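Thread: nicotinamide-adenine-dinucleotide complex, take 2
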Amino acid sequence: MPLILNRQDVMSVLTMKDCMAVVEQAFLELAGGTADLPLRTAIKPQDGLSLYMPAYLKQSNALACKIVTVFKNNPARFQLPTTIGTVLLQDPETGKVICIMDGGYLTAVRTGAASGVATRYLAREPEESTVGIFGAGVQAKMQLWAMAEARKVGRAMVFDISKEAAENFSREMAEKLDLMVAVASAPEVLLDADILCLATSSALPLFDGNLVKPGTHINGIGSHTPNAREIDTALVTRAKFIGDSKEACFGEAGDILIPIQEGAISESHFYAELGEIISGSKPGRSSKEEITLFKSNGLAVQDAATAKLVYEKALEKGLGMQVEIFTES
Ligand SMILES: NC(=O)c1ccc[n+]([C@@H]2O[C@H](COP(=O)([O-])OP(=O)(O)OC[C@H]3O[C@@H](n4cnc5c(N)ncnc54)[C@H](O)[C@@H]3O)[C@@H](O)[C@H]2O)c1
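Output below.
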Protein backbone atom coordinates (compact mmCIF):
# COMPACT_ATOMS: atom_id res chain seq x y z
CA MET A 1 0.00 0.00 0.00
CA PRO A 2 1.49 3.38 -0.93
CA LEU A 3 2.34 5.65 1.94
CA ILE A 4 1.23 9.27 1.62
CA LEU A 5 3.55 11.83 3.25
CA ASN A 6 2.68 15.51 3.49
CA ARG A 7 5.17 18.35 3.92
CA GLN A 8 5.07 18.18 7.71
CA ASP A 9 5.93 14.48 7.60
CA VAL A 10 8.86 15.12 5.26
CA MET A 11 10.10 18.03 7.39
CA SER A 12 9.97 16.00 10.56
CA VAL A 13 12.33 13.28 9.29
CA LEU A 14 14.68 14.97 6.81
CA THR A 15 17.95 16.40 8.17
CA MET A 16 20.68 18.08 6.13
CA LYS A 17 23.31 15.72 7.53
CA ASP A 18 21.46 12.58 6.39
CA CYS A 19 20.54 14.16 3.08
CA MET A 20 24.17 15.06 2.35
CA ALA A 21 25.18 11.43 2.92
CA VAL A 22 22.68 10.01 0.39
CA VAL A 23 23.20 12.82 -2.13
CA GLU A 24 26.97 12.20 -2.02
CA GLN A 25 26.30 8.53 -2.79
CA ALA A 26 23.96 9.56 -5.64
CA PHE A 27 26.69 11.67 -7.26
CA LEU A 28 29.12 8.78 -6.88
CA GLU A 29 26.68 6.46 -8.62
CA LEU A 30 26.21 8.97 -11.42
CA ALA A 31 29.98 9.13 -11.98
CA GLY A 32 30.37 5.36 -11.64
CA GLY A 33 27.71 4.48 -14.21
CA THR A 34 25.18 2.84 -11.89
CA ALA A 35 22.61 5.63 -12.18
CA ASP A 36 19.90 5.97 -14.81
CA LEU A 37 19.13 9.63 -15.37
CA PRO A 38 16.98 10.26 -18.44
CA LEU A 39 16.49 13.84 -19.58
CA ARG A 40 13.80 15.86 -17.83
CA THR A 41 10.56 15.77 -19.86
CA ALA A 42 8.50 18.95 -20.19
CA ILE A 43 4.84 19.36 -21.14
CA LYS A 44 3.13 22.74 -21.42
CA PRO A 45 -0.57 22.40 -20.57
CA GLN A 46 -2.54 25.67 -20.93
CA ASP A 47 -0.65 28.41 -19.03
CA GLY A 48 1.62 26.06 -17.14
CA LEU A 49 4.70 23.93 -17.31
CA SER A 50 4.83 20.33 -16.07
CA LEU A 51 8.24 18.70 -15.64
CA TYR A 52 8.85 14.96 -15.10
CA MET A 53 12.17 14.04 -13.49
CA PRO A 54 12.81 10.27 -13.25
CA ALA A 55 15.91 8.53 -11.88
CA TYR A 56 17.10 5.10 -10.80
CA LEU A 57 20.06 4.48 -8.52
CA LYS A 58 21.04 0.81 -8.72
CA GLN A 59 23.28 0.59 -5.66
CA SER A 60 21.04 2.76 -3.49
CA ASN A 61 18.03 0.80 -4.76
CA ALA A 62 16.10 4.03 -5.31
CA LEU A 63 13.62 4.49 -8.17
CA ALA A 64 11.55 7.67 -8.30
CA CYS A 65 9.97 10.35 -10.44
CA LYS A 66 9.42 13.92 -9.33
CA ILE A 67 6.68 15.99 -10.94
CA VAL A 68 7.29 19.72 -10.72
CA THR A 69 4.67 22.10 -12.02
CA VAL A 70 5.00 25.85 -12.58
CA PHE A 71 1.61 27.54 -13.06
CA LYS A 72 1.92 31.32 -12.79
CA ASN A 73 -1.82 31.93 -12.37
CA ASN A 74 -2.13 29.60 -9.38
CA PRO A 75 -1.81 32.19 -6.57
CA ALA A 76 -4.34 34.66 -8.04
CA ARG A 77 -6.89 32.20 -9.45
CA PHE A 78 -6.68 29.13 -7.24
CA GLN A 79 -4.91 30.21 -4.02
CA LEU A 80 -2.20 27.68 -4.79
CA PRO A 81 1.58 28.15 -4.99
CA THR A 82 3.15 28.78 -8.42
CA THR A 83 5.47 25.81 -8.05
CA ILE A 84 4.31 22.44 -6.72
CA GLY A 85 6.55 19.37 -6.41
CA THR A 86 5.46 15.80 -5.74
CA VAL A 87 7.65 12.68 -5.67
CA LEU A 88 6.53 9.15 -6.53
CA LEU A 89 8.85 6.53 -5.04
CA GLN A 90 8.71 3.04 -6.53
CA ASP A 91 9.80 -0.43 -5.47
CA PRO A 92 12.58 -1.26 -7.98
CA GLU A 93 11.71 -4.95 -7.76
CA THR A 94 8.01 -4.71 -8.61
CA GLY A 95 7.66 -1.20 -10.04
CA LYS A 96 4.85 -0.46 -7.60
CA VAL A 97 4.57 3.08 -6.26
CA ILE A 98 5.33 2.70 -2.56
CA CYS A 99 5.21 6.32 -1.50
CA ILE A 100 3.77 9.64 -2.67
CA MET A 101 5.34 12.58 -0.90
CA ASP A 102 5.44 16.34 -1.00
CA GLY A 103 8.48 17.40 -3.01
CA GLY A 104 8.84 21.08 -2.10
CA TYR A 105 10.84 20.85 1.11
CA LEU A 106 12.66 17.77 -0.20
CA THR A 107 13.86 19.74 -3.25
CA ALA A 108 15.19 22.57 -1.12
CA VAL A 109 17.06 20.23 1.24
CA ARG A 110 18.55 18.09 -1.54
CA THR A 111 19.68 21.28 -3.34
CA GLY A 112 21.38 22.47 -0.17
CA ALA A 113 22.87 19.01 0.27
CA ALA A 114 24.53 19.07 -3.19
CA SER A 115 26.23 22.36 -2.32
CA GLY A 116 27.18 20.97 1.08
CA VAL A 117 28.89 17.97 -0.50
CA ALA A 118 30.64 20.17 -3.10
CA THR A 119 31.84 22.49 -0.34
CA ARG A 120 33.19 19.62 1.73
CA TYR A 121 35.28 18.41 -1.22
CA LEU A 122 36.33 21.74 -2.72
CA ALA A 123 36.43 24.59 -0.21
CA ARG A 124 39.51 25.51 1.80
CA GLU A 125 39.23 24.55 5.44
CA PRO A 126 40.30 27.42 7.66
CA GLU A 127 39.63 27.02 11.39
CA GLU A 128 36.38 28.92 10.87
CA SER A 129 34.82 29.81 7.51
CA THR A 130 32.90 32.94 6.64
CA VAL A 131 29.94 32.15 4.39
CA GLY A 132 28.41 34.73 2.05
CA ILE A 133 24.90 34.16 0.75
CA PHE A 134 23.33 35.98 -2.21
CA GLY A 135 19.55 35.72 -2.06
CA ALA A 136 17.42 35.28 1.04
CA GLY A 137 14.70 32.95 -0.21
CA VAL A 138 13.87 29.33 0.55
CA GLN A 139 16.89 27.91 -1.26
CA ALA A 140 19.30 30.35 0.33
CA LYS A 141 18.27 29.16 3.80
CA MET A 142 19.02 25.57 2.89
CA GLN A 143 22.37 26.62 1.42
CA LEU A 144 23.44 28.13 4.73
CA TRP A 145 22.19 25.09 6.65
CA ALA A 146 24.31 22.87 4.37
CA MET A 147 27.38 25.11 4.79
CA ALA A 148 27.08 24.71 8.55
CA GLU A 149 27.16 20.92 8.06
CA ALA A 150 30.07 21.03 5.61
CA ARG A 151 32.38 23.40 7.50
CA LYS A 152 32.81 25.04 10.88
CA VAL A 153 31.17 28.38 10.11
CA GLY A 154 32.31 31.38 12.17
CA ARG A 155 29.79 33.79 10.71
CA ALA A 156 27.53 34.31 7.73
CA MET A 157 26.64 37.36 5.65
CA VAL A 158 23.59 37.75 3.46
CA PHE A 159 22.79 40.13 0.60
CA ASP A 160 19.41 40.37 -1.10
CA ILE A 161 17.96 43.16 -3.26
CA SER A 162 15.08 43.04 -0.78
CA LYS A 163 16.42 44.37 2.53
CA GLU A 164 13.36 43.02 4.30
CA ALA A 165 14.02 39.51 2.96
CA ALA A 166 17.67 39.74 4.07
CA GLU A 167 16.67 40.90 7.56
CA ASN A 168 14.13 38.09 7.94
CA PHE A 169 16.75 35.61 6.73
CA SER A 170 19.28 36.94 9.23
CA ARG A 171 16.88 36.61 12.18
CA GLU A 172 15.56 33.17 11.23
CA MET A 173 18.89 31.57 10.36
CA ALA A 174 20.79 33.05 13.31
CA GLU A 175 18.28 31.35 15.59
CA LYS A 176 18.09 28.08 13.65
CA LEU A 177 21.86 27.61 13.41
CA ASP A 178 22.95 29.55 16.49
CA LEU A 179 25.22 31.63 14.28
CA MET A 180 25.98 35.29 13.65
CA VAL A 181 24.23 36.18 10.36
CA ALA A 182 24.81 39.77 9.23
CA VAL A 183 22.94 41.67 6.54
CA ALA A 184 25.61 43.14 4.24
CA SER A 185 26.19 44.83 0.90
CA ALA A 186 27.40 42.78 -2.08
CA PRO A 187 30.98 44.17 -1.95
CA GLU A 188 31.18 43.47 1.80
CA VAL A 189 30.12 39.87 1.23
CA LEU A 190 32.72 39.40 -1.52
CA LEU A 191 35.47 40.89 0.61
CA ASP A 192 34.96 38.63 3.62
CA ALA A 193 33.53 35.33 2.40
CA ASP A 194 35.58 32.13 2.07
CA ILE A 195 32.52 30.38 0.63
CA LEU A 196 29.82 32.00 -1.51
CA CYS A 197 26.36 30.57 -2.18
CA LEU A 198 24.42 32.16 -5.03
CA ALA A 199 20.74 31.34 -4.64
CA THR A 200 18.79 34.15 -6.25
CA SER A 201 16.04 34.43 -8.84
CA SER A 202 18.22 36.77 -10.92
CA ALA A 203 18.83 36.08 -14.61
CA LEU A 204 21.79 38.47 -14.70
CA PRO A 205 25.25 38.23 -13.06
CA LEU A 206 25.08 39.25 -9.41
CA PHE A 207 28.47 41.01 -9.21
CA ASP A 208 31.77 41.70 -10.95
CA GLY A 209 33.66 38.39 -10.76
CA ASN A 210 37.00 40.23 -10.58
CA LEU A 211 36.08 41.19 -7.00
CA VAL A 212 35.97 37.58 -5.77
CA LYS A 213 38.93 36.78 -3.48
CA PRO A 214 41.46 34.13 -4.53
CA GLY A 215 40.76 30.87 -2.70
CA THR A 216 36.98 31.37 -2.58
CA HIS A 217 34.67 28.41 -3.19
CA ILE A 218 31.35 29.23 -4.91
CA ASN A 219 28.14 27.24 -5.12
CA GLY A 220 25.92 28.60 -7.92
CA ILE A 221 22.44 27.13 -7.72
CA GLY A 222 20.12 29.82 -9.09
CA SER A 223 19.84 30.31 -12.85
CA HIS A 224 18.99 27.27 -14.96
CA THR A 225 18.30 28.31 -18.55
CA PRO A 226 20.81 28.89 -21.37
CA ASN A 227 20.13 32.65 -21.41
CA ALA A 228 20.25 33.28 -17.65
CA ARG A 229 23.22 33.38 -15.32
CA GLU A 230 24.17 34.52 -11.82
CA ILE A 231 27.91 34.31 -12.48
CA ASP A 232 29.72 36.57 -14.94
CA THR A 233 32.31 35.62 -17.55
CA ALA A 234 35.20 37.02 -15.49
CA LEU A 235 34.48 34.73 -12.54
CA VAL A 236 33.85 31.62 -14.66
CA THR A 237 37.14 32.27 -16.49
CA ARG A 238 39.05 32.59 -13.20
CA ALA A 239 37.51 29.49 -11.62
CA LYS A 240 37.93 25.72 -11.74
CA PHE A 241 34.47 24.72 -13.03
CA ILE A 242 32.77 21.67 -11.52
CA GLY A 243 29.17 20.82 -12.43
CA ASP A 244 26.58 18.45 -11.01
CA SER A 245 26.32 16.94 -14.51
CA LYS A 246 28.11 17.85 -17.72
CA GLU A 247 24.98 17.19 -19.75
CA ALA A 248 22.85 19.45 -17.54
CA CYS A 249 25.44 22.24 -17.57
CA PHE A 250 25.75 22.23 -21.37
CA GLY A 251 21.98 21.84 -21.76
CA GLU A 252 20.75 24.55 -19.43
CA ALA A 253 23.41 26.56 -17.59
CA GLY A 254 23.89 30.05 -19.01
CA ASP A 255 26.68 30.42 -16.44
CA ILE A 256 28.95 28.32 -18.68
CA LEU A 257 27.13 28.54 -22.03
CA ILE A 258 27.30 32.36 -22.27
CA PRO A 259 31.09 32.62 -21.67
CA ILE A 260 31.55 29.90 -24.32
CA GLN A 261 29.34 31.82 -26.79
CA GLU A 262 31.36 34.96 -26.03
CA GLY A 263 34.56 33.07 -26.89
CA ALA A 264 36.06 33.67 -23.43
CA ILE A 265 36.40 29.94 -22.69
CA SER A 266 36.01 26.68 -24.59
CA GLU A 267 33.99 23.59 -23.59
CA SER A 268 37.13 22.09 -22.06
CA HIS A 269 36.84 24.70 -19.28
CA PHE A 270 34.28 22.31 -17.74
CA TYR A 271 36.72 20.52 -15.42
CA ALA A 272 34.71 17.73 -13.77
CA GLU A 273 31.41 16.44 -12.52
CA LEU A 274 31.05 16.49 -8.74
CA GLY A 275 30.94 12.67 -8.69
CA GLU A 276 34.40 12.53 -10.30
CA ILE A 277 35.80 14.70 -7.50
CA ILE A 278 34.09 12.55 -4.85
CA SER A 279 35.40 9.30 -6.38
CA GLY A 280 38.90 10.79 -6.63
CA SER A 281 39.11 10.15 -10.38
CA LYS A 282 39.83 13.88 -10.75
CA PRO A 283 41.61 15.90 -8.06
CA GLY A 284 39.71 18.79 -6.48
CA ARG A 285 41.26 22.06 -5.30
CA SER A 286 44.91 22.35 -6.33
CA SER A 287 46.01 25.37 -4.24
CA LYS A 288 44.91 27.76 -1.51
CA GLU A 289 44.55 30.52 -4.10
CA GLU A 290 42.46 28.59 -6.58
CA ILE A 291 38.83 29.65 -7.01
CA THR A 292 36.52 26.64 -7.20
CA LEU A 293 33.02 26.89 -8.64
CA PHE A 294 30.26 24.30 -8.32
CA LYS A 295 27.32 24.78 -10.68
CA SER A 296 24.18 23.01 -9.60
CA ASN A 297 21.27 22.54 -11.99
CA GLY A 298 19.37 20.07 -9.82
CA LEU A 299 19.24 16.38 -10.77
CA ALA A 300 16.58 13.72 -10.34
CA VAL A 301 19.18 11.40 -8.76
CA GLN A 302 19.24 13.80 -5.78
CA ASP A 303 15.44 13.53 -5.52
CA ALA A 304 15.40 9.73 -5.78
CA ALA A 305 18.08 9.28 -3.11
CA THR A 306 16.40 11.75 -0.77
CA ALA A 307 12.91 10.32 -1.30
CA LYS A 308 14.11 6.86 -0.35
CA LEU A 309 15.72 8.25 2.78
CA VAL A 310 12.51 10.09 3.74
CA TYR A 311 10.39 6.97 3.10
CA GLU A 312 12.58 4.78 5.31
CA LYS A 313 12.65 7.34 8.14
CA ALA A 314 8.88 7.82 7.92
CA LEU A 315 8.30 4.06 8.11
CA GLU A 316 10.53 3.88 11.20
CA LYS A 317 8.50 6.63 12.86
CA GLY A 318 5.11 5.34 11.70
CA LEU A 319 4.30 8.58 9.88
CA GLY A 320 1.87 9.18 7.02
CA MET A 321 -1.19 7.42 5.76
CA GLN A 322 -1.33 4.08 3.89
CA VAL A 323 -3.80 4.05 1.00
CA GLU A 324 -4.52 1.07 -1.26
CA ILE A 325 -4.72 2.30 -4.85
CA PHE A 326 -3.90 -0.98 -6.59
CA THR A 327 -6.39 -3.80 -6.34
CA GLU A 328 -6.29 -6.90 -8.52
CA SER A 329 -9.56 -7.62 -10.33
N1 LIG B 1 19.94 24.07 -8.54
C1 LIG B 1 18.86 23.52 -8.05
O1 LIG B 1 18.80 22.30 -7.83
C2 LIG B 1 17.68 24.39 -7.70
C3 LIG B 1 16.58 23.83 -7.01
C4 LIG B 1 15.53 24.65 -6.67
C5 LIG B 1 15.55 26.01 -7.01
N2 LIG B 1 16.61 26.51 -7.69
C6 LIG B 1 16.70 27.94 -8.06
O2 LIG B 1 17.15 28.68 -6.93
C7 LIG B 1 16.76 30.05 -7.08
C8 LIG B 1 16.20 30.57 -5.78
O3 LIG B 1 15.00 29.88 -5.49
P1 LIG B 1 14.07 30.31 -4.25
O4 LIG B 1 12.95 29.34 -4.20
O5 LIG B 1 14.90 30.52 -3.03
O6 LIG B 1 13.52 31.71 -4.77
P2 LIG B 1 12.90 32.90 -3.93
O7 LIG B 1 12.08 33.69 -4.89
O8 LIG B 1 12.28 32.38 -2.67
O9 LIG B 1 14.18 33.77 -3.49
C9 LIG B 1 15.00 34.40 -4.41
C10 LIG B 1 15.61 35.63 -3.73
O10 LIG B 1 16.58 36.19 -4.63
C11 LIG B 1 16.54 37.59 -4.46
N3 LIG B 1 17.23 38.25 -5.58
C12 LIG B 1 16.82 38.39 -6.87
N4 LIG B 1 17.75 39.03 -7.58
C13 LIG B 1 18.79 39.27 -6.75
C14 LIG B 1 20.07 39.88 -6.91
N5 LIG B 1 20.46 40.39 -8.09
N6 LIG B 1 20.89 39.96 -5.83
C15 LIG B 1 20.52 39.46 -4.63
N7 LIG B 1 19.31 38.90 -4.41
C16 LIG B 1 18.47 38.78 -5.47
C17 LIG B 1 15.05 37.89 -4.36
O11 LIG B 1 14.82 39.17 -3.79
C18 LIG B 1 14.59 36.74 -3.46
O12 LIG B 1 14.61 37.08 -2.08
C19 LIG B 1 15.77 30.07 -8.25
O13 LIG B 1 16.44 30.53 -9.40
C20 LIG B 1 15.39 28.61 -8.42
O14 LIG B 1 14.98 28.29 -9.73
C21 LIG B 1 17.68 25.73 -8.02
